[in-house]
């Protein structure tokens, strides 16, 4: 098994940003998440909610609403602009100013022809969605107060708009208001406060459902404009509503952190007169829930506590499995830390800056056998602020520790680090704008080359030397059967230790392997249905080890262009139930040069060493057998051990890296620390306190 | 087993009225509840006990209104019968025999597990029919009847057991079951405790052990069923009830707060707090105007729909009896622990709770695990003008806290008023307490575990020159540092006997001189009493080594002793008789004897199967004059005793029962006025008067020229004075025959 010196790093103060908006696209099964810092993420709902795409935000760009129109994603924010995203290249496509002041909400109709935005100046503006752009069409009747929420009738003929103290129903054709529904203010002291209609939902049967700041979920009839029923859900605000596609289930997110479900149920069994009845309450958040999405099989919610919670609705799930378990997504599904393996440096990526740290040193044994005496504390060498307003998309430090590179949406910057004793200085070596902006950056193991994954599955090569750097060329996948259609941009690129091979994966689940000596595409790994979450090329055997979002693993021999025997055996025997039930993807694949048969993997909750020489566990064997093995005598251990050695000592792991001196760096970000930095939640009376 | 056939043990008044949910009649005038083997009918307005439906031979376990006729009620009993009654007249209409014992109207008990069977009640004119058509619905249900409920219009029945809810549809004959996890991450206890079904919607409300209420809907789907959860109760929900309109849901638990949830708007709820003991059952009248809650302290509260308590029907509280059974010499009421911190006064004759006397005078908090003050000892002096009580707390922990309180009877307010509170009467727990029985001076003796006994007298303290006389310590006695176990005054108060472990010391209360010690038997003295009247020279004692000894105080020698394990020795204050309950191999025997005679007057083997620790002789209002030797001891007083199961039992003779039966037949039936004793006196009289008046009226007030000929009128007029034939119908027996022929 071996022994590792472990640097446990907890000084990476990564703060996930709060979730502001959610938009679910049923056709492509993607959910888009907008965060407070303006970044937009896309999760694949049927692929274990793997975070496929991240579009970093900008300074001063608050997104208020997200909307899918077909497969196109639009957002609108308080800066008054409507933004369309280029999802293949993971960047902003264009921004159109709506000229109505800050935009509070955006909604697309089901036909996919129009977008409606609600503005601060009290107008609902309609935009026509064209092939490549959106075009302002007209304003609906201007109201006195700002438009907070919007919902289209499924037919697209009417729009309900939530405002201060009221809801307006507009006829889209005439642009005039049809009905005005007055929402009651709260009683007592809140009487003087305006009632904000935070969210409206327009159902196909003409029912309008509203959630407001008084804490009520109200059901209105759009024919008569009367209140049908009101449910007092909370003492605070109802901030978000979402209805299922067949309109039999509604979820409401409140600022208490609860999600309340309503169901459209017949009151007498077997009869047709149905009513909306409050049923379940889910409490998975500590703070305000700003956005909810009912995606039929689950309820997705996100809010100020920055976690995305997927609460399955088990009555709608066909088969209960690991894919339909309660899921809480705290951290991005990619690495924010890169380590210089040879020089003991770590680069932390924050949205607006980079931090470079040197690991501490230890000596001998400490007070007990486990802890070592720290000779030198880790120190922060560098705080590098980003030029411009864009946030960092990716960053890397070279294994030798001399080069730092980062990329934003608009540019890529390469720095050279000079470290003499206590003086640290950097010089900018390279700045490339738009063309080369990278989705993923990687250095070769001898630090002689920089690989930058870019659009259309291509990888740019930059050679680095003492004198300077030079753009060498571009690796492109073989142009053959798949020339037509846009290729997704690459995102994960590991290079082999001997500098001969490079692999790149893209969000289309394709993995390309390039020969760096000939600078030609070598081969393509057969496409698997699930996304690749981590890859690594074995230093001695030159096999590509891949981890997928559905927790499967594959080993592909680059030289023989086929799966290895071990990989085939894994596929044949299947993986252990406990392994498949883990709910976070593996984020890194490492190899231990001292034990060629060992593969080191990690996800958010565990660190695992797979020993390829040992037998695979089947469902009957004890999976977490470390304790059992310890209690067994030496000679029996062999017969009881299996390939998976799982270590759960570490929690909330952001990154694990094996340094060249055989020590492990484990970067943890305890969730309690994250929670302690959040603003105080709404105070709630707890029983018996 | 019973040696004398004409004396039998009867479960007397004070049975549990809270065993099953009470029923309110459809006109809201009557409340029906089960009480032992009776069904009692109370008036909702006056809280008066009107009459009882007598006929079952064992515990009645369930009652329900006949859905076809709202004037009839079904009852079921452990005796295996289901009976149909006319509850206004108190008449048995029909008996159904069900093969196994019924535990609820829907629930029948089989040997080990409870089974749910549906019984088809055959339509038959005969009075006794045997129900044969039965179909088992479920073989495993909870024995708690509130875990079973009929759904909308009787289409389905919902029943729960542990963590599983089952819904059985009668038409489809199909059961749907839903289960919950035993615990979740938050440690909630999810076991079902009660069920109620909405009257018009398909919605089932279930109560749970952790205080949650779930409303289940869509329960014809295996997967797409759904429920919403409400949480207010901090402990198990005992009972749930929908109002008949279905607009509200009522719930209750140990908090003794009635909670009214608005159906459909679950956040809105109303509370009616401080109802007494924890709520066990809730029922609503069919018009929704009245609610009834029954409580653990054997009480039924009648509540208006505006959430105002309008009546309390209090039964005998027997939850935690720590004091002896006592008789208040003034009211002749039975006195024992009542509500927590109270003494209750209960009239055995009228089977009615008289009042509660607040001893502790502190708010009682209904929560499990709290250590609160409890009345543990009480004693009356012979005239009933003084009452001494001991309250203590800290039984489990080491720091014992107790107060001795003395209460004087106030003639003006007709109740006891606190006179003296002694905070540190002893340094350790008071074991025994008795008043001297002399008429002139009252003296209280307390014996405690601090190896002392103290005598307390009134007004001995000269410092307080006030009108009121307070009690203070007069004498402290001890004997070789032994812990006293018992104390007792002789009938004329000239002697005080205090037992110290194995030694009995006899003291003279006048001079506080120890006269003699009696130290004969092996074993610690358990019970001590002096003989009365002609036997006052005898002192009786029982020991832990199963000896019953009788000393002659004149000779200071042991007169006789016998080996019998006496758990309770109770002298009759009105005769020489002494009753001894002995517990042997799972049953209790009773011996009644005179200390002077070695032969017992009366023995009754196997009085009950539990140990008897509390008994009392209650004087009769009018003495019986039975000459039979075996029943003579019951002539002047009646022996009541409380078993460990808290059943209050007594002995009654055959002649007594005959008299009771004849008196109950005098009840005359009228369906417009509630039959109260007052009505029986006055109403009947008035009615006759009325009848006479109306018949003479037309003759006297009609002008003569419009009247028919006098010869025609004459026979009518004379006839009207004759006693009507219809009067016979008022005889309950005849009326009874009439009904079952139709």
TrEMBL record, chain A:
Superkingdom assignment: Eukaryota
One Pfam family named in its UniProt record: WD40
GO annotation, cellular component aspect: 90S preribosome; small-subunit processome; t-UTP complex
Coiled coil segments of this chain: none
BP GO annotations: maturation of SSU-rRNA from tricistronic rRNA transcript (SSU-rRNA, 5.8S rRNA, LSU-rRNA)
A Gene Ontology molecular function term of the record: RNA binding
Protein name, as recorded: UTP4 small subunit processome component
Organism this protein belongs to: Cyprinus carpio carpio
Automatic annotation (TrEMBL), chain B:
UniProt keyword Metal-binding, yes or no: no
Ranges of residues in domain WD repeat-containing protein 75 second beta-propeller: 325-646
Annotated GO biological process: positive regulation of rRNA processing; positive regulation of transcription by RNA polymerase I; rRNA processing
Repeat positions for WD: 53-95, 185-216, 230-262, 423-456
GO cellular component, one term: small-subunit processome
Keywords on record: Nucleus, Repeat, Ribosome biogenesis, rRNA processing, Transcription, WD repeat
Protein localization: Nucleus, Nucleolus
Family annotation (SMART domains): WD40
PROSITE patterns in the record: WD_REPEATS_2 (PS50082), WD_REPEATS_REGION (PS50294)
Gene Ontology MF terms in the entry: RNA binding
Protein name: WD repeat domain 75
Organism: Cyprinus carpio carpio
């Amino acid at each position: 098994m071996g022994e590792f010196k472990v640097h446990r790093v907890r000084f990476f103060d990564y703060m996930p940003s709060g979730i502001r908006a959610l938009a679910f696209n049923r056709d492509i099964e993607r959910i888009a998440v907008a965060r407070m810092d303006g970044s937009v993420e896309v999760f694949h709902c049927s692929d274990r909610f793997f975070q496929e795409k991240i579009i970093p935000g900008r300074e001063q760009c608050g997104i208020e609403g997200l909307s899918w129109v077909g497969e196109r994603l639009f957002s609108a924010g308080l800066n008054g602009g409507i933004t369309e995203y280029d999802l293949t290249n993971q960047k902003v496509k264009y921004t159109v100013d709506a000229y109505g002041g800050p935009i509070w909400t955006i909604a697309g109709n089901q036909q996919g022809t129009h977008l409606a935005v609600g503005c601060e100046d009290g107008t609902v503006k309609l935009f026509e969605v064209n092939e490549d752009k959106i075009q302002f069409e007209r304003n609906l009747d201007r109201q006195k107060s700002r438009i907070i929420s919007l919902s289209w009738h499924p037919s697209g003929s009417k729009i309900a708009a939530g405002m201060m103290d009221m809801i307006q129903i507009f006829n889209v054709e005439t642009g005039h208001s049809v009905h005005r529904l007055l929402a009651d203010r709260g009683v007592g002291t809140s009487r003087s406060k305006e009632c904000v209609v935070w969210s409206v939902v327009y159902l196909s049967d003409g029912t309008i459902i509203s959630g407001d700041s008084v804490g009520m979920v109200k059901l209105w009839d759009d024919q008569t404009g009367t209140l049908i029923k009101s449910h007092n859900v909370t003492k605070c605000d109802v901030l978000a509503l979402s209805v299922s596609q067949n309109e039999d289930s509604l979820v409401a997110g409140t600022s208490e952190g609860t999600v309340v479900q309503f169901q459209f149920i017949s009151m007498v069994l077997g009869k047709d007169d149905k009513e909306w009845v409050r049923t379940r309450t889910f409490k998975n958040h500590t703070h305000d829930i700003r956005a909810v999405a009912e995606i039929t099989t689950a309820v997705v919610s996100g809010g100020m506590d920055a976690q995305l919670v997927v609460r399955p609705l088990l009555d709608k799930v066909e088969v209960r499995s690991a894919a339909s378990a309660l899921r809480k997504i705290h951290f991005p599904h990619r690495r924010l830390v890169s380590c210089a393996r040879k020089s003991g440096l770590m680069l932390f990526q924050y949205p607006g800056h980079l931090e470079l740290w040197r690991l501490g040193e230890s000596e001998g044994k400490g007070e007990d056998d486990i802890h070592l005496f720290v000779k030198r504390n880790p120190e922060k060498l560098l705080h590098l602020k980003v030029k411009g307003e864009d946030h960092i998309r990716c960053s890397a430090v070279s294994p030798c520790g001399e080069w730092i590179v980062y990329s934003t949406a608009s540019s890529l910057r390469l720095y050279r680090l000079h470290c003499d004793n206590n003086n640290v200085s950097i010089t900018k070596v390279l700045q490339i704008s738009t063309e080369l902006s990278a989705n993923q950056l990687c250095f070769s193991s001898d630090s002689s080359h920089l690989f930058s994954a870019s659009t259309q599955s291509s990888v740019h090569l930059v050679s680095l030397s003492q004198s300077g750097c030079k753009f060498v060329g571009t690796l492109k996948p073989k142009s053959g059967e798949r020339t037509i259609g846009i290729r997704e941009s690459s995102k994960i690129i590991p290079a082999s230790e001997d500098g001969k091979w490079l692999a790149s994966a893209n969000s289309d689940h394709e993995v390309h392997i390039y020969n760096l000596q000939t600078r030609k595409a070598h081969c393509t790994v057969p496409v698997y249905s699930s996304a690749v979450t981590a890859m690594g090329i074995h230093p001695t055997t030159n096999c590509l080890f891949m981890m997928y979002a559905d927790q499967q693993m594959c080993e592909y021999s680059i030289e023989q262009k086929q799966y290895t025997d071990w990989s085939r055996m894994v596929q044949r025997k299947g993986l252990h139930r406990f392994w498949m039930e883990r709910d976070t993807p593996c984020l890194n694949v490492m190899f231990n040069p001292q034990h060629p048969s060992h593969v080191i993997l990690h996800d958010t909750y565990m660190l695992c060493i797979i020993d390829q020489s040992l037998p695979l566990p089947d469902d009957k064997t004890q999976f977490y057998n470390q304790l059992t093995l310890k209690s067994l005598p030496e000679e029996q251990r062999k017969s009881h051990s299996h390939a998976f050695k799982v270590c759960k000592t570490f929690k909330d792991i952001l990154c694990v890296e094996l340094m060249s001196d055989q020590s492990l760096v484990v970067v943890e970000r305890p969730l309690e620390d994250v929670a302690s930095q959040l603003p105080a939640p709404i105070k709630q009376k707890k029983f018996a306190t | 087993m019973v040696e004398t056939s004409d004396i039998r043990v009867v479960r007397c008044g004070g049975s549990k009225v809270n065993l099953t949910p009470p029923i309110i009649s459809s006109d809201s005038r009557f409340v029906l509840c089960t009480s032992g083997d009776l069904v009692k009918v109370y008036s909702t307005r006056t809280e008066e006990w009107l009459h009882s439906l007598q006929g079952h031979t064992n515990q009645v376990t369930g009652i329900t209104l006949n859905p076809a006729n709202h004037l009839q009620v079904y009852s079921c009993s452990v005796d295996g019968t289901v009976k149909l009654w006319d509850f206004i007249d108190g008449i048995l209409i029909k008996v159904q025999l069900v093969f196994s014992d019924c535990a609820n109207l829907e629930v029948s008990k089989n040997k080990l597990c409870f089974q749910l069977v549906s019984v088809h009640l055959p339509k038959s004119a005969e009075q006794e029919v045997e129900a044969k058509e039965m179909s088992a619905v479920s073989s495993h249900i909870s024995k708690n009847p509130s875990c079973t409920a009929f759904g909308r219009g009787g289409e389905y029945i919902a029943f729960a057991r542990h963590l599983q809810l089952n819904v059985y549809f009668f038409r489809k004959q199909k059961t749907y079951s839903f289960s919950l996890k035993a615990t979740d991450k938050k440690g909630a206890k999810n076991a079902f405790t009660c069920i109620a079904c909405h009257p018009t919607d398909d919605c089932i409300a279930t109560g749970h052990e952790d205080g949650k209420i779930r409303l289940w809907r869509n329960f014809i789907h295996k997967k797409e069923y759904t429920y919403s959860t409400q949480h207010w109760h901090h402990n198990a929900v005992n009972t749930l009830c929908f109002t008949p309109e279905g607009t509200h849901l009522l719930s209750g638990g140990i908090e003794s707060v009635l909670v009214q949830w608005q159906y459909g708007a679950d956040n809105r709820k109303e509370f009616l707090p401080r109802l007494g003991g924890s709520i066990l059952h809730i029922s609503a009248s069919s018009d929704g105007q009245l609610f009834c809650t029954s409580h653990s302290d054997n009480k039924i509260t009648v509540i208006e729909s505006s959430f105002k308590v309008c009546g309390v029907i209090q039964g005998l509280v027997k939850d935690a009896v720590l004091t002896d059974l006592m008789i208040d010499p003034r009211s002749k009421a039975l006195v024992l622990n009542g509500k927590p911190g109270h003494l209750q006064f209960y009239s055995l004759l009228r089977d009615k709770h008289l009042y509660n006397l607040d001893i502790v005078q502190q708010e009682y908090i209904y929560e499990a695990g709290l250590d609160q003050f409890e009345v543990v000892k009480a004693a009356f002096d012979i005239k009933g003008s003084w009452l001494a009580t001991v309250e203590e707390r800290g039984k489990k922990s080491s720091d014992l806290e107790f107060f001795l309180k003395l209460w004087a009877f106030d003639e003006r307010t007709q109740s006891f008023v606190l006179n003296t509170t002694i905070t540190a009467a002893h340094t350790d727990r008071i074991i025994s307490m008795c008043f001297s029985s002399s008429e002139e001076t009252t003296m209280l003796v307390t014996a405690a575990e601090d190896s002392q006994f103290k005598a307390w007298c009134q007004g001995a303290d000269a410092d307080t020159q006030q009108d009121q006389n307070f009690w203070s310590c007069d004498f402290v006695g001890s004997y070789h540092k032994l812990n006293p176990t018992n104390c007792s005054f002789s009938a004329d108060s000239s002697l005080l006997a205090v037992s110290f472990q194995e030694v009995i010391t006899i003291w003279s209360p006048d001079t506080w001189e120890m006269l003699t010690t009696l130290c004969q038997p092996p074993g610690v003295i358990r019970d001590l009493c002096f003989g009365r009247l002609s036997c006052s020279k005898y002192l009786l004692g029982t020991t832990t080594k199963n000896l019953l000894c009788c000393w002659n105080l004149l000779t200071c020698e042991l007169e006789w002793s016998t080996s019998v394990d006496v758990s309770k020795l109770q002298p009759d204050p009105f005769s020489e008789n002494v009753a001894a309950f002995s517990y042997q191999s799972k049953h209790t025997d009773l011996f009644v004897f005179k200390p002077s005679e070695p032969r017992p007057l009366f023995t009754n083997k196997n009085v009950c199967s539990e140990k008897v620790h509390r008994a009392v002789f209650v004087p009769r209002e009018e003495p019986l004059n039975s000459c039979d030797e075996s029943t003579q001891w019951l002539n002047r007083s009646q022996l009541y005793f409380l078993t460990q199961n808290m059943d209050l039992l007594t002995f009654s003779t055959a002649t007594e029962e005959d008299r009771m039966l004849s008196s109950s037949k005098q009840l005359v039936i009228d369906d417009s006025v509630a039959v109260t004793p007052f009505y029986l006196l006055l109403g009947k009289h008035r009615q006759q008067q009325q009848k006479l008046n109306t018949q003479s009226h037309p003759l006297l007030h009609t002008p003569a020229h419009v009247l028919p000929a006098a010869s025609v009128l004459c026979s009518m007029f004379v006839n009207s004075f004759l006693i009507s034939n219809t009067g016979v119908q008022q005889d309950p027996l005849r009326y009874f025959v009439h009904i079952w022929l139709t």
